[in-house]
Amino acid sequence: MGLDVYLSHYSDFKKSKQHEKEYNDYSNMLYDTLEGIEDENLIKKAKSGISKKLSKKAKDLGLDKWGEDITYSTDIQKNSVLHPGHIFKIGYFRSSYNNNGINSILRTLKIPDLYDIFESGDDEYEFCPDWNKSLEVVQESIRLLKKDKGYSVETISANMFSPDDVPLTPTAALEIFNNELKEKHKNKQILSYSNRDGEFYLHNGGLRVYGMIPGKDQLERPCTFIIYKMKNGNKFYLQALEIVKETIEYVLAKSNPQEYYLNWSS
Fold first, then answer.
1. Which residue has better confidence, 76 or 3?
2. What are phi and psi of 174, to 5 degrees?
3. Which of 50, 153, 168, 223 could anchor a disulfide with 217, C-beta 3.0 to 4.6 Å?
């Protein structure tokens, strides 16, 4: 599964997917005709003709210019009533692969994440969840997260792409950090980030560390697990779960919740 989760309403899911597939098959067939052509002018001319044909095909099938259905499908995305300024929306969740993404955080805390809430299959990118069951699970996730003490974990290990290019003395490590401080003044918008040299927390509060535990990461490399508390604790993730619940309740309030699908970006 991917980074983002979107909510859509389908008046006819089967027809919507059939039309998109017909468009994609037609597009692949047209572009296959370019194989073997080496003259750039001929390729340019052929692509222009293909674009016109695809535009007509999309219009005939009721699709937008990217080949996505707009006849039987409607994207749902609106600001949360509870937390209107949050990155999560009614109909949009940011799942994220990185360590600070909601799935990673909840999984570390042994709390049901977005996959668990909606019981998504590993090979299904778009499906209609059991919305009533999803409501039960998200309520449990919210309950457990409210009980959590707000500790989080950061895994610090050497750069996997250049494992030998690491500081070997405290002086060398401090020099790298001081260079990052200089860069901070060039871009004051981004104060917490990671790069090839490490993890940096240059905002005023820094990172409040409660423990450092040697261990091994998922690649079996020596690492240190940093136990810390975020400035606002689990506030962001709790609000995110409340918006997920808000989305589920939005769907369940409809007369036809079976027509609402989640799409997980690849």
1. 76
2. -65, -35
3. 223
